[in-house]
Amino acid sequence: xxxxxxxxxxxxxxxxxxxxxxxxxxxxxxxxxxxxxxxxxxxxxxxxxxxxxxxxxxxxxxxxxxxxxxxxxxxxxxxxxxxxxxxxxxxxxxxxxxxxxxxxxxxxxxxxxxxxxxxxxxxxxxxxxxxxxxxxxxxxxxxxxxxxxxxxxxxxxxxxxxxxxxxxxxxxxxxxxxxxxxxxxxxxxxxxxxxxxxxxxxxxxxxxxxxxxxxxxxxxxxxxxxxxxxxxxxxxxxxxxxxxxxxxxxxxxxxxxxxxxxxxxxxxxxxxxxxxx
Length: 277
Fold this sequence. Notes:
The chain has helices spanning 17-51, 56-66, 68-71, 88-97, 119-132, 141-144, 159-169, 171-174, 197-206, 221-236, 250-276, and strands spanning 181-182, 188-189. It is an all-alpha fold and 277 residues long. It has a two-stranded antiparallel ribbon. Helix 4 (88-97) runs antiparallel to helix 5, helix 7 (159-169) crosses helix 10 (221-236) and helix 9 (197-206) packs antiparallel against helix 10.
């Protein structure tokens, strides 16, 4: 008598099995990614806490590795770069925070670009330069942050006076709308439409590149503060009346009307003439 073969019963696979398997895989992948992200974040926080404690000694190391080639080990300058004696920490912070330094390439003017160092590193280098060859330093907070002068209870910011001082002393290069302008030999005055108050003050005090130095005999600290307040107000001002056209006044508006307005009338006249013919 033939022995019957036992066949293992094969149950039908549930249609939700594939979905469950995919869901489990996604959960596992998400958990691994979340854990890795948390680990990286903690490492970044640790690095940030370390960089915030940089000192002038750390700044010297950064200077030696990144700046001494052009400015010299003793800050006396070389054929490739000027001396830093007397420029002060304010000038160093301005040049490095705006990305002008380290210099990308030799040219008529150092362009502004994204900074290559963190704020803590920049402050450390500036502190080192200030300790070796002191110069202009950071202003009191009342100058750039609009706070009252603790030594003068009647101190107030005058936007009208600041705008007038800007037109008299700065508009010939930076444009009356602070939109910047061209200078000679490929140089230019940068736009001030997004410049911070600290960097405005630093430029007036240190005179970077083609910028003249405005000492207290030219513009008092209060005058500088008024100019900064007027420019910051202009940055935050809500534009009304349609397109700003660069805020350059009747010149740009007249050019716009001449090209588009009269051009549209000429095109309409030609079309009407061709239609009638």
